[in-house]
């Protein structure tokens, strides 16, 4: 396993213009030859966009696989890419929302979806006023790759936290505006953990609500990441403060607003979303949820 990783490190040192040639090859293999999860992808697209024609959906499907393969090589590149290069390739807009949160002495809950390329948020830690930036991740089965993923997300001064640790950390950490917690928040909860669902992309969708519970217990700043692929290898992230309708957030308000914002992002650029996961596999559990 260590030998494979050393090879991947060497691979990641290649210029992106060369890595994108590998991306083109990977696309040809998984789209045209292997057909990796094409049935799942097309079914997800069809259910999410019932008004689109088969021809329109096929175009989105093909573009998705192009973006997905770019994401694969860009993730490898993340192990060795410099902060200077990431600053050129990822433009962060509306960063004043982080300054506002620090001035208000409120820690930040940063909410992103599986929109390409969410792995390239790492260098954000170098350009915000907050000293502590905590990417939240889920454990993987392999202890070796668990460590490597943690090392990847530790780059540029980040302090990654495993999902099961993060709530305890937030409650114990001073709410002084000096910490950011980055959630890729459209995770699918395990069927045993399904407690709430909503309508998302025209489907009943079980949703993760851990961050929502924080909104009613602590005075935190919630910020949404609107990720946009400008062109190959270049991204733009707009940050928007999520505000309560009343004086304070009520239960499920943040999770509903996050999914509305994410749905708008996906509708504008549907090929940039991760369609290959079985995100709606636990729809049957929603009938027992308190909606």
Task: Give a quick summary of the entry.
The protein has 291 residues and is an alpha/beta fold.
General description of the model:
It is a single chain. α7 links the parallel β3 (132-137) and β4 (161-162). The chain is an alpha/beta fold and 291 residues long. 43% of the residues lie in helices and 18% in strands.
Rg value = 19 Å
Main sheet?
Answer: 7 strands, mixed
What's the arrangement of strands in the largest beta sheet?
Answer: 1-9-8-2-5-3-4
Please give the share of residues in helix. 40-55%
Summed over residues and divided by their number, the pLDDT gives a mean of 92
The ordered H/E elements are HHHHHEHEEHEHEEEHEEH
Helical run tally:
10
**Unreliable parts:** none
Question: Could you give the count of β-strands?
Answer: 9
Amino-to-carboxy terminus distance: 45 Å
Q: Give the overall shape.
A: globular
Give the amount of beta strand, in percent: 15-25%
The helix-and-strand class reads: alpha/beta
